[in-house]
């Protein structure tokens, strides 16, 4: 590995390291990835130095050669607890069998990656950005740690730095035949005057990777299997009490409690805490808190959703799409109106999708302890983090940011819901009332369904023009719904060569709580786009793969996924009788094309997805098996949302309460096989967690069109809706 093409940063004022019986820590300054290795005479001095300089560690090496690497991202089953430390270990040349992984402190100035705006640093596990954004961070930090070890060995052996190499946690001097393990170097560590700020050319060539791209078992799986893994809901602290809230079923309605004295008289009840939209109860046990919650007598006021009926709103949305006044422009290319005027043929269709609930496995929960004087607090939570790594608790309590410690735990599912901190702030309010006792807040499943924060309901009107040969000349896409980017993302067609495009969003708000749901707007938008493409191809008797092949002429990486999935799915061979295949392409960071094979029960309206094939280009793939697992999970979640999942509101009130009336895909309904082929690439890694889910609905609708000649345009494709289409 060459260290040329690197730039140096200013010299250190200290050249000694922090040494202890536990080993050495390479400290990273708040200004960047600069290891400040501090010399301190005792533990109190260490603490003073750390406080003064505001630093913390990326890696810790002990004298027995054990290495601890800190993971800055949430771990909710997507594998970040392995992927990010693996990137660090690759550049450090660490022996992976001797690596342990822990969550880093929640301090974005130190552990953050580049955010959505230049110069910002975030710890935010959302948007399929974790590996993408931390890839350069972890590579440079690992390379700097390796550099320090090389420098230390060169000084210890009195040999030229350039004669040294590393491998498997050892520094090697080939000329003299000497080797020394990283652990053995702990007592000989020294700091260079300057440290390279490695550029891409100074890091490993991907062809030399030993860990990245190989099948490395995930670090957290064993403890999840044997039950020793701790999620926030598992935590039990001394003197901990329990909190619950009753929020009602109309979002934003104000409560008036009429039997507070009776509630306070119940066994185990400690306090009643009112909120603008809920009534909170704190009790000695969860059972006592839930019993008190059931006994609450609340008069609910009106709120913005009152009178709103979700299944009746589509006609109003259609009128909004008809209005001459345009909405907010999302994308504009060429002249769509002129293309429509000159078209040989035009097509128009409305696509609809209902509200969808996140349905994460672990109920929302948090533990917060506020000091007796109210001037500090500690939080234990499974969170996708956020713009504020302290999750809003400092502002809630009116205390400094540094006075709050957040202990990140494993998440039992997130999908965007745990990037919202409402449940943490609720727990903080209860803990403030109970200080200094720690409070655990738990949302029941009914709480989470009725007061959920849903993927928005939308209507999308698409108008498409073609020439006489069936070539697309214009594509107009109008999204009507609430939430801005929640409904507008994924509506662009950057990988299709369509000369004239217009995408707009027209707002329609009803006071319903909304939040990012896996793939955000891509799910509904890619469904509408991909289904519309097949409707045009079907009308012109053009094969859907051939149709997309021509559209992707200027997008070779996207085209490669199309060609690969056509091959692995044996697209050109006929399906078995009663079955058909459908295709859909999605870009959500990574590029993926999927093909599904379905059948339809004409008596019940039940659609069955038998097989799914995916070709994926995700750039450099850190963990191939984990990427395949992500794609499989995304496909299953996509099938569930496309065929079953549905939140409805009547007179502003959520009608579903639990999994008996909010249907999810069952084990016996998953495809017989899901096959993912990863296309090799040396490009920068892209996210994979949200690529599979939005391709599903379009692929199913397109297979349905091929099989029946009928069009599915309203998600979810419930049996009732399928029968209605079949009988139309």
TrEMBL record:
Source organism superkingdom: Bacteria
Positions of the Aldehyde oxidase/xanthine dehydrogenase a/b hammerhead domain: 226-305
Gene3D superfamilies: Aldehyde oxidase/xanthine dehydrogenase, a/b hammerhead, Aldehyde oxidase/xanthine dehydrogenase, molybdopterin binding domain
Pfam family, one: MoCoBD_2
Protein name: Molybdopterin cofactor-binding domain-containing protein
